[in-house]
Amino acid sequence: MSRNTKIVIRDLTKVFYKKEQSITAIRNISLDIKEGEFVCIVGPSGCGKTTLLRILAGLEKQSSGGFRIEKSSMHRPNQSMVFQERGVLPWLTVRENVAFGLRMRHLPKEQIQERTNFFLSKVGLTKFAHMYPKELSGGMKQRVSIARAFANDPEILLMDEPFGALDEQNRHILQEELLSIWSETKKTVLFITHSIDEALYLSDRVLLMSAQPGQIVQELQIDLPRPRTLKDIRANPDMAEQFLAIWQHLQTEVQQSRS
Length: 259
Ligand SMILES: Nc1ncnc2c1ncn2[C@@H]1O[C@H](COP(=O)(O)OP(=O)(O)OP(=O)(O)O)[C@@H](O)[C@H]1O
Prior knowledge:
Number of strands: 9
CATH superfamily of the largest domain: P-loop containing nucleotide triphosphate hydrolases
Structural class: alpha/beta
Order of helices and strands: EEEHEEHHHEHEHEEHH
Number of domains: 2
Distance between the termini: 46 Å
GO molecular function: ATP binding; ATP hydrolysis activity; glycosyltransferase activity
Bound molecules: adenosine-5'-triphosphate
Largest sheet: 6 strands, mixed
Keywords: ATP-binding, Glycosyltransferase, Nucleotide-binding, Transferase, Translocase, Transport
InterPro entries: AAA+_ATPase, ABC_transporter-like_ATP-bd, ABC_transporter-like_CS, ABC_transporter_ATP-bind, P-loop_NTPase
CATH architecture of the largest domain: 3-Layer(aba) Sandwich
Radius of gyration: 19 Å
Helix content: 25-40%
Protein name: Mannosyltransferase
Number of helices: 8
């Protein structure tokens, strides 16, 4: 069954101006992302990954080109964004953080409670619902951000290196939890990462960006059946080839941008 297109991006370009200087962060990005697809973006530092996500989130205005997020309901927010850090509000408890977006939308109290409880339980934070962010570990804070993003029930999810600051073990636990919620909710996810293993583990498709100005120069379909394990990825010769392809791409782009 072919899925509908959820995000359409056409010729998206962003130029930042500072005094006499201009920086073209991304140039002519065109892209279609299907409903329910999990897409990772990988590229060298400074190639415009965050800029692309911020434009889709409405936090930054593009210089030219455009994009469209197909709506499935008038009542859903267009997107939720999960950042690497600073995603939780320190003055609210875990429960209040997860419920925040729902409260802002003035949803009925019972609905807020039900959705908040559901996603608190999904990320294993039910017991910690009354705590404040300063009492939580980095991994727990990221769980709060993920629970809040999904609880909001947005049309799409934008994730900017959400696990970048976590240690290897915690990172993998959160990746598993994210995939479990994603497979239940069928959300469309656009996810930035610097980790090739993470991209291969999570993605249906990996987009490779060039060094600045960022363009999508290659894409890899990741056909490994789900649920996947790290062992599957390590043991599968096709995955080893994909890993090397991404690695070589990054090497080349970083070298070119330095020379
Ligand atoms: N508000 C801004 N004003 C001026 N330049 C900016 C602004 N935001 C980003 N840039 C520039 O745009 C380029 C792309 O930045 P961006 O943060 O999107 O890259 P990135 O690929 O996400 O980097 P990293 O992987 O290191 O997080 C960089 O050269 C950056 O300096």
